Amino acid sequence: MRTATYFFIFLNLSLALFEEPAVYPLPFLATSVLEVLCLLVFLGRLTHFAKVTLHNVFWKDTKNICIMVAILLSLTDLAIYGVLRLYDVRSIRWSRIVRPIFLINFAESRQIRRAFRSIRNTLPEITYVFLLFMFSLLMFSLMALKLFGERNLQTAEGLPYFRNYLETVFDLYVLVTTANSPDVMMPAFDFSSWYVLFFIAFIIVNTYIFMSLFLAVVYNNYKKHLKVLPGGACD
């Protein structure tokens, strides 16, 4: 039963790769039949669990309620989407976001729920570090706007360079990941090599200090909550 449940959960999540929009889309009938099959298996597994569980215990368990609601929402969305397709009306499969609920809430997913709860308990405690990082990013973006915005610089594509504050924030945020390094620095460096000092300071503060601090806080708090939660606390 556990292996079958995991298989159909994996199949249900994998449908997003073949449903529109997708690189290799399958016909709507094929994906809808597979989804209905998965939902029927989930409903059967839930019914089987209800048969071997006390009535009061079953209905007091929020995991079972979440699974039933997710099945109902998925079937409703699938029916509405199918009807709209018959009338050539474009719509969105909004119920895809509820599919991870099946992965988390089945009885077989105890360790996944434990990890999920540890992540949820960790989030409030890393908020302060995240706010400090965002404050640093916003301040550096403001400095970049003042330094480069009035120089009439352009990127290699001929676009304005650091003249819009929100675009500056986004470019520097990407620079934290080093994904656009050193391309984002080159227009300023070509104008004056001294401007490289700004980017060096930015990378040291945000990439090497804040990202390391952020990772350490996340790891320590996650490990603490993982130790605090007993094995049966997530059931």
UniProtKB/TrEMBL annotation:
Q: Spell out the InterPro entries in the cross-references.
A: Ion_trans_dom (IPR005821)
Annotated signal peptide: 1-16
The keyword Transmembrane is annotated on this UniProt entry? yes
Subcellular location per the Swiss-Prot or TrEMBL entry: Membrane
Q: How does it sit in the membrane?
A: Multi-pass membrane protein
Q: Does the keyword Cell membrane apply?
A: no
Q: Give the record's keywords alphabetically.
A: Membrane, Signal, Transmembrane, Transmembrane helix
Annotated transmembrane regions: 26-44, 65-84, 126-145, 165-182, 194-219
Q: Name one Pfam family in it.
A: Ion_trans
Q: Where is the Ion transport domain?
A: 6-224
GO molecular function terms noted in the UniProt entry? monoatomic ion channel activity
GO CC terms in record: membrane
Domain of life here?
Eukaryota
What protein is this chain from? TPC2 protein
